[in-house]
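Teaching note: in complex prediction, the entire set of molecules is handled at once rather than each chain in isolation. The prompt given to students was simply: 'Predict the structure of this complex.' The entities are:
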Amino acid sequence: MTGLSPQQLIDLTYIVAAVLFILSLKWLSSPVTARHGVLAGEIGAALAVGATLFNPELVQYRWIVIALIIGAGIGVPLGMVHMTAVPQRTALSHAFGALSATMIGIAEYYVRAPQVTKFGMVEIGLEVIIGSLTFTGSLIAAGKLQEILPQRPITYRGQNIVSLSVLGTAVVLALILVIHPAYMKLFPAMVGVALFFGVLLVTPIGGADMPTVISLLNSYAGLSAALLGFVLNSKVLVVAGALDGSSGFILSVIMCKAMNRSFTNVLFGAFGQEQVAAAGHVEARPVHSATADEAAAILAAANKVVIVPGYGMAVAQAQHKVRELYDALAKRGIDVKFGIHPVAGRMPGHMNVLLAEADIPYDKLLDMDVVNGEFPQTDVALVIGANDVTNPAARNETGSPIYGMPILDVDKARTVMVIKRSMSPGFAGIDNPLYYLDRTLMLFGDAKAFVGDIVRELGGTHQ
Amino acid sequence: MPSDFISNLFVFILAGFVGFEVIKRVSPLLHTPLMSLTNALDAIVVVAAIIIAGRHETMLSTVLGIIAVGASFSNMVGGFLITDRMLRMFKTGKSKKS
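The expected output is the structure of the full assembly:
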């Protein structure tokens, strides 16, 4: 073999990195091998970054090193956030990824312009539009998740027409730039309009739809990286972007299916509005409520308990108390499992991470399909901070806005207990017939405090 | 249509297929770590950022490149870190007691 040029050596390293990235995701398929996956990804990334630093085209290093140090300085605290902050951290990292891809696309444009080929301009235009809208959209999502911005959907009449015409404007500006490369002044306008569209895209979307939106933004962030790979003719970016994009896409599809909605319905459906009408005729019906000691007595007499956590558990930070409840029940020989709906929480897998953080063994965390087969043999289903995902109206009320959405069949358990602050309807504003069943006991109070009270009662009767 | 585009499209479609096949096997249990890991892998755009910044072609391209290096490297470091922290928490009943 004759000598390899430095560029060829770098490219070979990139191939190794791309293979390691694929292995990384492959090993993530099971919790047993998942940490090897992280290591493979880290090695791949380190090789690729290390090799790039030997690129003969580089003429200055000082600012690169400073930027890498600052990046690590921001990255470490973002990697150390509390588990309850993971959804907003994830949204923020979509924003950073999109920001990076957008900055590079813009830089590349100004290096080439006005001598951009028509085809090159198509690629850059698409890349920069998707990157920009992902950047601002993710920032808005992060703001909503951090509750800096209101979580409820913000809607107004004619919203979709306004949003779509803004996106249309960005596309038209890009097309003009393709046809007339000399109109360079239109480029910043295109970027600005695309950034604005990102804000319009996510502002109307409510907190309960965040799992889908965060997955879609993940997919866009991957797509913008892959498109950047097209612009720069960099295969490693194309591969990494395609992997990230397909991951986000798969998750979006899973989330949409779990809500029985389409992408367009999530993005343009303005979920909040339909429900206002549906919530209008809520009549006051009697419910059965119970105290902590009554709940503890029923749980103590059970053989099989399924706990169904939702966003309310995350808000109340009740996962550690839930762990104590799990321990107290398991000590009595009661079979305790957790039923997890795909859209419970604010991002895919949110509940699993919180429960794992509280040291609950992951083999007790069951998917919707598995756990639904177990409810008929379950003595007590304990719902903590979940609402719409347990609403039987989704199964049998054709008029309900959530009709058709797959739910956790908690109403098939012998006794249902629901920890809830009050009877006010849940996030989506839909009344839940589950609460009025004879077998349902409402446990009114803060999730963390109430679970703590049950644990105390269980401990007291035990000793 | 430039030939680079065709070869990139080739890679994109194959990588998309591999991604689809591999990722659909990921347990729903690990969907949050999946998202943070793919974020970290996606941060490989840092290599393009390093080149744009290091070529020092124009002041603008260098400044934008440096911002991009910082933004993507923070994703890379933070993404791997939090993914590993999350995965360390996933234990079975047996390993928990040990």
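Point out the following to students. The first helix of chain B runs from residue 3 to 23. Chain B has five helices and no strands.
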